[in-house]
UniProtKB/TrEMBL annotation:
Protein name (record): Phosphatidylserine decarboxylase-like protein
Natural source organism: Leucogyrophana mollusca
UniProt superkingdom: Eukaryota
Length: 408
């Protein structure tokens, strides 16, 4: 079993069965209309660049034959799968859906094993390849934001779709349960849904010594005295703050600082909210990778999920620097990291804007995602005793206090 944090079923055989069905479709219509042009462009990129061509062939040689996705014999079949997937919205229809397991990120399901190879790493850190992924995801996003993508929201208690899969959905989120699509205009509209008033209240709203959670998420790691520069690709994946912060002039403020990282699962709320009272000092959008992982031969699968620290230095992300009203905190940074698929990080605040705890900062659009809060070395931050790896935290809930006593 593999822990995919809910984005894919833990049982690899469930994923392999899903891939086999997709391959059967591809072999009938390799590049499905109406979004074939961007896939043909991807094939041309691979075949006209000798370095990329080499990597996309080597990755098939480097995956053990018993772990190759069934029927995915070469990069042309892989591209055919992409062509089919970007004509669809993700469905809540896995045979393991009753256990909360779905193929939530279908392209990652195809690339999982390839990401865990040296050739895959070389291919997926290539700027041209990532630019082409972005073009492909832009095309897919247009569909996911259209009325045509709503069909995956229609379900029944016996055969649930996404809204029915979330307990008390109509009570928690703004929606219209009398409408077969719950009032959502698209898949993306559902994915970026908002809470009803009164849900996720802001803890310690006026107490500037308390830091709140920026997202509904699960704790991945807390690291102290992170280095400005480190070998982030090595086992253990130490944080490398200069790279995480894109070598921004403000990065020097955070050397030997504290990093709190937590990931979002597919059924989580995907908007970000300010963890402190303060002012937005700077916003930086970083174009990065989508499927680059730190290869680990000991992993059966799930290299990207296991590479969340690594990805903070390379992946597509947004940096939001906030000057806290509490001088003991001072300048801090929120990082929204897009993982795989349509990893769009949309910012909804502006520089010099005053924000209060719970103020919306932005959101992830469809895709896996993780986030970090970074504090300077001088900040005496103490996390609550309940905040540890794999702890589920709710947005706006208190997670730490600046000072000698933690939040309990």
């Amino acid at each position: 079993m593999v822990n995919y944090n809910g984005w894919l079923p833990q049982d690899p055989e469930v994923v392999r069965k899903w891939i086999r069905k997709k391959v059967d479709v591809v072999k009938k219509v390799p590049y499905a209309a109406p979004r074939a042009d961007v896939i043909q462009e991807f094939q041309s990129l691979i075949e006209n660049d000798p370095e990329i061509f080499m990597y996309f062939n080597q990755m098939f040689e480097q995956v053990p034959k018993d772990k190759l996705p069934p029927g995915v014999d070469d990069y042309k079949i892989m591209l055919g799968l992409f062509a089919t997937i970007i004509t669809e919205a993700p469905k809540y229809d896995s045979e393991r859906a009753a256990e909360g397991e779905v193929v939530g990120v279908p392209i990652y399901a195809i690339l999982d094993q390839f990401s865990n190879t040296p050739a895959g790493l070389n291919a997926f850190i290539n700027r041209k390849v990532n630019d082409q992924f972005k073009k492909m995801f832009t095309v897919w996003a247009e569909f996911l934001q259209s009325l045509d993508s709503r069909y995956v929201l229609e379900g029944t208690p016996e055969e649930p779709a996404w809204p029915q899969a979330i307990a008390d959905f109509a009570d928690i989120f703004v929606c219209d349960p009398t409408d077969k699509y719950y009032g959502f205009k698209s898949w993306d509209d559902f994915f970026t849904r908002v809470f009803r008033e009164g849900q996720r209240p802001v803890d310690f709203a006026t107490d500037d010594s308390v830091v709140n959670s920026a997202c509904d998420s699960t704790v991945y790691r807390i690291a102290y005295r992170a280095n400005a520069s480190d070998q982030f690709w090595l086992k253990g994946q130490p944080y490398s703050l200069d790279y995480m912060l894109n070598n921004d002039p403000l990065a020097s403020e955070f050397d030997k600082g504290t990093v709190f990282q937590a990931f979002l699962s597919p059924l989580d709320y995907h908007r970000w909210h300010s963890p402190v009272n303060g002012k937005i000092k700077k916003i930086v959008q970083v174009e990065g990778t989508y499927y680059a992982a730190s290869p680990d031969p000991e992993l059966e699968a799930g290299s990207i999920i296991a590479s969340q620290s690594f990805m903070t230095s390379l992946a597509t992300r947004v940096l939001i620097f906030i000057e806290s009203d509490n001088p003991e905190i001072g300048l801090m940074c929120f990082i929204g990291v897009g993982m795989v698929e349509v990893s769009t990080c949309e910012v909804t605040v502006k520089e010099e804007e005053v924000v209060k705890k719970g103020h919306q900062l932005g959101m992830f659009h469809f895709g896996g995602s993780t986030h970090c809060l970074i504090f300077r070395r001088e900040v005496p931050i103490v996390f609550a005793e309940t905040i540890e790896v794999d702890t589920v935290v709710r947005v706006n809930s208190a997670i730490a206090r600046v000072g000698n006593s933690g939040v309990n």
